[in-house]
Amino acid sequence: MREHFEAVNHKSAIDYIESIVKEKREITKEILCKINDLILTNIEKEEKGVYRLRRVYAAGASFVPPKPDLIQQLMEKYIIWLNKNKKRNIVDYAALAHEKFTFIHPFIDGNGRCARLLVNLLLMWQGFPPIIFLKTDRKKYIRTLEQAHNENYAPFVNFTARNIERSLSLWANALKIPDKKGTDEYISLAEASKISPYSQEYLSLLARKGKLESIKLKRNWVTTQKAIEEYKNKNK
After folding, report:
1. Facing residues of 216 across strands?
2. Active site residue: 4, 98, 105, 149, which one?
3. Contact, 63 vs 92, CB < 8 A?
4. Which of 63, 92, 95, 171 has its CA 20 to 30 A from that of 144?
5. Torsions phi, psi of 187, nearest 5?
6. Is 105 tagged catalytic?
């Protein structure tokens, strides 16, 4: 049931951030708390939509988030930073906004989901399409984010840039704008099977299990030559 509510709640939260973009509203504490409230509906009853009052530990990370008595002050400074830096380079802005938010870890639960929704809000503010952090990139996502928490920002900024680039490629494809041909161009699994040692059925299985970087366009999985090569190198 939790997974069901997470999916349903995510849709509600996306609708909400789209309304914020449409109304051109600046980020406030109320907006951030509302996002958290939406994604934790029917999951967390007592502490959803409010800054945490307890210590928490980030799953899969070695850093320890700030004590709860510091959250209010840290978030006030963070919100000021968000609204003052809207005109900076979008990649740096999105990546740093994500890192700062997750480091503070202001809520009892759902901080990662809130951060990713916030990044999409910031991107859409500036006319960019939303991005998706792929399941296949989860280890890299956690590793580079933790590096950023230790003031090594470049890996996470580059990781964010790659996701923005992928999203833009998808939109370009949807709009049928000619794209440069290369290893990053999306191809069908049938095409991929012809340039790799794997069958279409096996590639489909890898895609469904999240072991091969791929996305679904309409009802069909697509991948890239680069993703095939990376999978081959990891599984030699």
Report:
1. 221
2. 105
3. no
4. 171
5. -130, 155
6. yes
